[in-house]
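agent> Task received from the user: take the single chain below, predict its 3D structure, and emit structure tokens. No templates, no multimer pairing.
agent> Plan: (1) validate residues, (2) run structure prediction, (3) serialize to tokens, (4) report one or two observations.
agent> Step 1 OK, no nonstandard residues flagged.
tool_call: predict_structure(input=
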Amino acid sequence: MHPIYHEKESLDQRCYDSFKLSPDILMEHASIALSNAVAKKLTRKTKALFVCGPGNNGADGIAAARLLHPKYDVALYLPFKPHSTLAKLQWDRAQAIGVPILKELENAHVFIDALFGSGLNRPLDMQSQNLIETLNARKGYKIACDIPSGVYNTDEPLKVCFHAHETITMGALSFALLGDEAKDAVGKIRVASLGITRKLYETSSTAFLLQKKDMILPIRKQKNTHKGTFGHVAILQGSKEGAAILAGMGAFHFGAGLVSIVGEKSKKTPPYLMLTSSLPANSSVIVAGMGLIEPFDEQQIQSLLVENELPLVIDASLCHHPLIHTVLASGKPLVLTPHPKEFCSLLKLTCNEDVNIETLQANRFTYAKAWTLRFPHSVLVLKGANTIIAHEENLYVNAFGTQALAKGGSGDVLSGMIGALVAQGYSLKDAAISASLAHALVSQKLTCNNFSLTPIDICKGLKWL
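)
tool_result: status=success, residues=465
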């Protein structure tokens, strides 16, 4: 896991105060990382154009161009006059060694956005918007310095922003890079060292970006076992029975020893899933909500969910139903797996907060953390382009998901997978993290067209992680 921060100015200041590093030293290391990234995309016959702003983000770009000149064909384009002390200094240095300076935008093989970065805290003016749109329209490889221009280091919704293939962010990760809207803008994120190791630069945080190595698969190491060793997942069937079946398939493929569908008999059920009209006595966890369309027997569902000590995984329709009040009030350990619309409904039902999807998406991290404060016994899995797992004031961001997962039934499989890990003895938080990572990594690993991935493909793909 790598920590995430709302701002990095305090981390820079700590370098100045505690490690005796000057701003110029940090900038030189930032520009080295940026120039190295650019150099990897250049040959003797290709050109890079650094588009630099008036502040320290622009200074990073100017310094990187200086480091590459004259070995590579590089040029600077400054639509605004340098105004920060370091920008002026780097401008003088670049001029002194003869870095080419353009008076208007030209074509290039690599474009580097060093306009605003993390310093952007105001709406872009029309000149800047037009420039960014022009850069986006140009052919070539796009690299952003620190944060793509137009992506705010606040909760502002995106309007116009630079679309990078790659972002070289300085020192540490920021929340601005990991919002759902930013996912199409940041490309591959690389963190640059600023003169000390990343471990020294970073301080404590309550938010983390998940890595592949944070996924703990339920590999069976013990040899003397039986099916009961790996838990029994009970899945409540709704009127849309296919959703429960998909959840059951996800649970079975992710290691659960037994999986039962609690509901009416169906001819569509795979032979490895059991059917029952009542909750099995040896159940380890209950998964509910998927396909549970009203009207349904509220008393029966309430009894199944709260009149026992089993942990819960709650999805879909129950996020829209007042019964969720009773479930949360019971204090039972539970995992909630809403998509944004369902989370808005949860906030309305449980917190009396009337939040629309646009507001939620612009403030995903804020609302997710607030939920953990209000319901500390729960684990929230807020699905999205970058899924957030929230528990006990901590946020864990899964950025591995792809657009291939945007299909009906994908979330049902995820709920079953989480239930399977809970049944096998994982904590609720660890089950949510590992299942979410596995679910996302399958979508990357499968080689089919990304529009054709099915929920059953996800289940099958778990075999090859």
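agent> Step 4: summary for the user.
Residues 213-464 form a domain with the UDP-N-acetylmuramoyl-L-alanine:D-glutamate ligase fold (CATH 3.40.1190.20).
agent> Done.
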